[in-house]
Amino acid sequence: MVQMSVAPTQAQLIEIFSTMNRIRAFDEKVDELFAAGKVYGTTHLYVGEEAVAAGVCAILEPADYITSTHRGHGHNIAKGGDLKRMAAELLGKEAGYCHGRGGSMHIADAAIGNLGANGIVGDGMPIAVGAALALSMQRRPQVVAAFAGDGSLNEGAFHEAVNLAAVWHLPVVFVIENNQYAMSTAVSRAYAIPELIERARAYGIPGIRCDGNDLLNVMETAGEAVARARAGGGPTMVEAVTYRWKGHSKSDAQRYRTRDEVAEWKKRDPVAALARILTAQGVAQDTLDALAAAARQDVEDAFAYAESAPLPDPAALEGAVYA
Amino acid sequence: MVQMSVAPTQAQLIEIFSTMNRIRAFDEKVDELFAAGKVYGTTHLYVGEEAVAAGVCAILEPADYITSTHRGHGHNIAKGGDLKRMAAELLGKEAGYCHGRGGSMHIADAAIGNLGANGIVGDGMPIAVGAALALSMQRRPQVVAAFAGDGSLNEGAFHEAVNLAAVWHLPVVFVIENNQYAMSTAVSRAYAIPELIERARAYGIPGIRCDGNDLLNVMETAGEAVARARAGGGPTMVEAVTYRWKGHSKSDAQRYRTRDEVAEWKKRDPVAALARILTAQGVAQDTLDALAAAARQDVEDAFAYAESAPLPDPAALEGAVYA
Amino acid sequence: MSREITYAEAVREAMAQAMDADDRVFLMGEDIGVYGGAFGVTNGMIDRFGPSRIRDTPISENGTVGVGVGAALLGMRPVIEMQFSDFVANAMDPLVNQAAKIHFMFGGQLCVPLVVRLPAGGGTGAAAQHSQSQEAWFVHVPGLKVAMPATPADAKGLLLAAIADDNPVVFVEHKLLYRVRGDVPEAAEPLPFGQGVVRRQGRDVTVVATSLMVHKALEAAERLQEQGTSVEVFDPRTLVPLDAAGITASVMKTGRLVVVHEAVERGGFGAEIAAVVSGGEAFSYLQAPIRRVAARNTPIPYSPGLEAAVIPSVDDIVAAVAATVSGG
Amino acid sequence: MSREITYAEAVREAMAQAMDADDRVFLMGEDIGVYGGAFGVTNGMIDRFGPSRIRDTPISENGTVGVGVGAALLGMRPVIEMQFSDFVANAMDPLVNQAAKIHFMFGGQLCVPLVVRLPAGGGTGAAAQHSQSQEAWFVHVPGLKVAMPATPADAKGLLLAAIADDNPVVFVEHKLLYRVRGDVPEAAEPLPFGQGVVRRQGRDVTVVATSLMVHKALEAAERLQEQGTSVEVFDPRTLVPLDAAGITASVMKTGRLVVVHEAVERGGFGAEIAAVVSGGEAFSYLQAPIRRVAARNTPIPYSPGLEAAVIPSVDDIVAAVAATVSGG
Lengths: 323, 323, 328, 328
Ligand SMILES: Cc1ncc(C[n+]2csc(CCOP(=O)(O)OP(=O)(O)O)c2C)c(N)n1
Ligand SMILES: Cc1ncc(C[n+]2csc(CCOP(=O)(O)OP(=O)(O)O)c2C)c(N)n1
Ligand SMILES: [Mg+2]
Ligand SMILES: [Mg+2]
Hints:
- The complex is a heterotetramer, with 2 copies of chain A and 2 copies of chain C.
- By secondary structure, chain A is an alpha/beta fold.
- Chain A has 12 helices and 7 strands.
- Chain A has helices at 10-35, 50-59, 73-78, 83-90, 124-137, 156-168, 187-190, 198-201, 215-230, 259-266, 270-280, 285-308; strands spanning 65-67, 144-149, 172-178, 181-182, 185-186, 207-211, 236-241.
- The model of chain A has no long low-confidence stretch (mean pLDDT 97).
- Chain C is α/β, with parallel strands linked by helices.
- Chain C has 2 domains: 2-185, Thiamin diphosphate (ThDP)-binding fold, Pyr/PP domains (Rossmann fold, 3-Layer(aba) Sandwich), CATH 3.40.50; 197-326, Rossmann fold (3-Layer(aba) Sandwich), CATH 3.40.50.
- In chain C, the strands form 3 sheets. Chain C has a 7-stranded mixed sheet with strand order 3-2-4-5-7-6-12, sandwiched between helices. A 5-stranded mixed sheet of chain C has the order 9-11-10-13-14, sandwiched between helices.
- In chain C, β2 (25-29), α2 and β3 (54-56) form a beta-alpha-beta unit.
- In chain C, α3 (61-73) packs parallel to α4 and α7 (212-226) packs across α11.
- The chains are: A alpha/beta, C alpha/beta.
- Bound molecules: thiamine diphosphate (2 copies) and magnesium ion (MG) (2 copies).
- One magnesium ion binds at residues 149-151, 179, 181-182 of chain B.
- The site of one magnesium ion has 6 residues of chain B, from β4.
C-alpha cells in the first residue's frame, strides 16, 4: 500500500495552522453576521471540522481538484480560496465568486480547482468522478477529492458515482466528513453499519477511517489515498470522524443532541490540538496567537471589503444563463 | 441463523416441476410468437432461470408479496398467476391482466400478491420495501420478495431502498437474479466486486449466494431468508447465480457472449436438473413427460383463448387514468 | 367553527386530523421528527404520533418516494415531505414512472394513494437549488394530481382531500406562505379538487394566479383599482384537475387575461392556461393578447436585489395588467 | 455533397465526425458498445473509437449524467445516450440541479458542454415506461437547450451544433424516425439552434409540429390540400431557443394556428407555443382558436389499437385543421 513517506515540516504545519484559523475565523464571523441579520439566506458552518479540509488540501497539489458541499467555506479556504471574494459572495456583491448569484452554498473557484460547493446533498461525488474521468482520458496527473457529508452516502448519486469510479479505476478520493449528524439525523439512525467505510467494500475499493480532528491522522490517511489515486491505483474512501460545533444551518434548535455532547467534542478542538503539537515542537505561544490574530484580521478585512463593494446589476442576469 | 427445517416433499417437488415447465413452455411459446411477428412490442424471456422464481415462490406463502421485473413472466407463473390472463395481456386483449394497457413488461396480479412487473430497472425494490413497511406497520405476518436482476444493483433505487429496509428492519428479501449479463454488460464490467452479495454487507444485512439453477439450493437459501424476515430478523439479500438462454429482448444479436458459453450453461438446465432429482427419487420418466406435456398444453390453451378474446375499447382509456 | 392560524399550522392540522381519523396515514421525510421539518411544518407531531408514523428518513428522496409507492399499494396513505421542492428532481422516477402509471398500466388492479408535499418557491435567499417552482413538470404527467393552495384554509382543505384521494397528489406549498395567517375551519373538511375560486370580482381583466402570486395579484388589483381598473383575480387552487370552466367564464366576462406564477415563464403552467383559453370558448371574447407574468428564464440568484428582479413582483403584475387593459 | 441515409445513421455520423475532429468528445451510455445501443445508433462505433470513448456504463442514469457534468467541467464534451428517454427521470437531478445551473450559479466560472440524447416517443408497443415524450420538462429549465430534429439532415446538423455548444443540450430523437431516410450533407456542418423551418408553404393555417409529428403534419397537409385547404407546416427544430419570430410570422400570414406534438397535451410544449402566439404580435391576426393536437392525457398503453388511439394520427391533424379553418 502506498504511504505518505515524509512527515509534514514545521513550516508546513504552521501554514496549515494559519489555514485552520482562517477557516475558523471566517465561519465564526459568518455566524455573527447571520445572528445579526446582516446576511441573506442561510449558511452551514464548518467550525470544529477544520482539520479535515485543511489536512486533505495540504496533501493535494495546487493543480488537483476538489468538489465541495453545502458546508463548503472551509474547503474553499483550504484549497487556497480568496477570503474577499468569499465574503463578497456571502454579501451578494458583484465582486463575489459568483457575482452574487450563488451565495454561501455555491462557492466555486475554478482557478484553484474548486469545482464548486453544492446545495444538493451527494451531487458533488458524481461530478468529482466525472472530473477524474476527464483527467484519466486526458492523461493528466491530477487527482480529485470529493468532500461529502455522512448524510450523503444514502443518496443514489453517491452509490452510482462510487461504483463508476471503482469500475473505471479513476483517480478520485471520497472524503466523507462524518460529523455524526445529517441535520438532525444521527449516523446510527441512517445506517445499519458501525462504520461508514463499510460501504467502500461494496464497490471493491479501499476504505480508511481516521480521526478527523487530528490533522496528522487526516494527512496520513489522505496521503495514502491521494498517492494511490495518483499512482493509478483507483479510488479510495476516507472517513474522517469529526463533529459540527454549530447548528446545522442558520436556524436549528438542536433538539437532537445534548449540550454535554457538544461540550465533550469541543474539548477535542482540532485547532487547539494542532496548536499543542506546534507548542510541543517548540513554537512559541505568541507566534501561534499572532497567526490566529492575523487570520481573524484577514477575515475582518475581507468582510470590510465586501461591505463596501457594489451590488450586482440585475440587467446582466438573462445574459448569464448560457455560456 | 434460521434454517429451512424440512426438505420439500416429493409432491411439492412435482408441483414445482410443473411450475417450472409452465414457465419454460410459456416463454418458449412467447419466443415463437414474437419470432413469427405475432406479438406487438418487446419481451424478455426467463428460459433457463426457472428455478429461481419457482424456488423462491415455493417458499413464500400465498399471502406473501413479490415485486417483479421486465423479465417477469416466470415470477407471475411461479406465484400462481393465470396463464390465460397473461397470454391475453401479451396479445393486448381486454381479458389480459391489464386490459391490454401493460403488455409483457407490466404484468401484475394483485390478488396473488404480485405487485407488478416493472419496465424500470431497479424500481421494484423500493416498492417491495414500501410493501414491507406497510406490512410491518399493519402488524401483518407476510413478507415481500423483490426479484431484481444483476444489472439493477447499480441503480440508486436499489441502494436507497435496501438501506431503508435495513435501517427499518423490514420483512423483505432481495432476490438478485444474477444471470451474468445486464443486456450486453457482463457483471464483471459493471461491478468491481467478485460477488454481488458483497453489497449486502454495506447495509448491514446478510447476503447469501446460491446456485440459481439448483432448485433445492434456491429453496434452502430463500427458506433461510424468508424465515428470517418473517421472524422479524429483517432483510436479506439472496444472489441466485443463473443464466439467460435467450437474447436480452426480442432483438439481440448477442455479440457480447459466445455460443460456447450459452451451450455450456444449457447443460446446467434447471428443469432437467429437477427432473433428475425426481427420477432419482423414483418418479417415472413418463410421469415427468406427462407433466411437461400438460404444461405445454396449458400454454397452448392460454394462447388459443387469448387469440379469440376481444380487443379493448380505446374509449375506456381516459377514465382509466385515475382511481 | 373557524379561527385564524398560519398556513404551516393548517398543513399540520390537516395531517394530524387525517392521522387521527385514519391509521393508514403516516408521514415520511427528512428531519420531520424532533427537528420538525426544515420549515417547522411537522413541529411536535412526533410527540403525538411517535416515530413510526412521523418517520424520519435518511437522505434518500428517490428511495423514500419509491417506498411510499409500495406502502400505498398495500393500503397505507403515506404523506411525504420533500425538504425542499427542488429535491423532487431526485424522485422524478418513482413519481412519474411508478406512482403516476401504476393504476393505469396494471389495468386498474392497484392504486397509489400517495401525497408528496413540496415546499417550493424563492424569496428566501436560498438560491438556485433551493428556490424552484416545478409544478409544470407534474401537470404534464397523466396520473398525477397537482394542488397549489394559496391560503391556510385551502391548504388544510386541499391537503385533507389529497390524503383521502386514491391517486398520487403533488402538493405544492410556498415557503413564504407558511407564516401567512387566515381563517381556517376547525373541522376536517376536504375541499374538492378542480374548483377554482374568484378571489376578487372584477370587470376589466382576469388575472389567474397561483400560490403566493394570488396574494401579489390581489395587492396589484388594489392598486389598479385606484387607477380605475377593475381586476378579477382567479385562483385555480388545483392545477390538475383544472377548473377550466371557471377560468373561461371569467375571461368571457372580462375579455382580458393575465396569468401570474412564480415558476419561470418558458414552459410554465401559465402556458397551459393561455392554451386553454386561446383554444377554447373564451377565445373570441379576448380583446388583448394574453400576458404572462412569471419568473425570468434564469435560475434563481442569491443576492436579494437579483432574486427580487427575477421573481414576479406586484409592480410587474400592475404593469402587465395595465398594458393588457390599455393595449387592445 | 449529400446522400440519402437514415436518421440513425445521421446521428451516428454527427457523433463520429465530432469525435474525429475533437478528442474531447466521447460517448457514454448503456450498451452503446458492442451492442450498438438499444436502437443501433452507435453500431460499430466501438470498433472505430474504442471502449474508452464509446463508454458502456452500468445501469446508473443518475450517476452517468452526474459524471458527464464533471467531465464537461474539465473540458470534455460527453454525449450521453439514455437507452430510452423515459429513464431520464432517473437523471433529472444532475441535469436540472447541476448541468443547467452551474454556469449561472457559479457566476460564469464554469460551463457544462454536455449532450443528453433521448430516444423518445411511442408507436413501438413498449408501453407506459418506454414511450414517453418529456421535452416539456426541459423547456421549463433555464440553462438547458432542447433540440428535436425531425429529419436526418437536421439530426446531423443539430447534433453537431449541440456537441459544439458550451451548454447542456437535451437532444430528443424519435425512435420511429431512426429508419426514416433523407438527404444529409457529408460535411460536418452544424445547424444553428433557434431557426425553425417552413416545411411546406401554405395560406390558410399554420401547423407547428415537432419531431415525428412534422411528417404526420405534412401528410395531413397533403390531404387537406385535396380538400382545398392550404396548410403551412412549421418545424421549430429547437424548442430552446425557439424561433418565435418564425412562428409569429407564419401565423400573421395564415391567421390560424394548430400545434401538433406527440407528448401529452396538458402542460406540453404546445401550450408554450399557444402562449407565445396568443401573447404576442400575432394575437390580433388570429381568426380562430388555437388548437392543440397531442397525445391524450393518459400514459401510453400497450395494445396497438389503444396506443394508436392515444398518439396523434394524421386523421387527428386533418380533423383539427379542418375545424380550425371552418370554425371562425
Ligand atoms: C438532495 C438533498 N436532500 C436534502 C437536502 C437538505 N439538506 C441539506 S444539508 C442536509 C444534511 C446533510 O448532512 P451531511 O451530509 O452529514 O452533511 P453535514 O451537514 O453534516 O455537513 C440536508 C438533509 C439537500 N440539500 N439535498
Ligand atoms: C432505469 C432503466 N435503465 C435501463 C433500462 C433498459 N434495460 C432494460 S433491462 C436492462 C438490463 C437489465 O439487466 P438485469 O438487471 O441483469 O436483468 P436481466 O435482463 O438480466 O434479467 C436494461 C439496461 C431500463 N429498463 N430501466
Ligand atoms: Mg453530517
Ligand atoms: Mg442480468
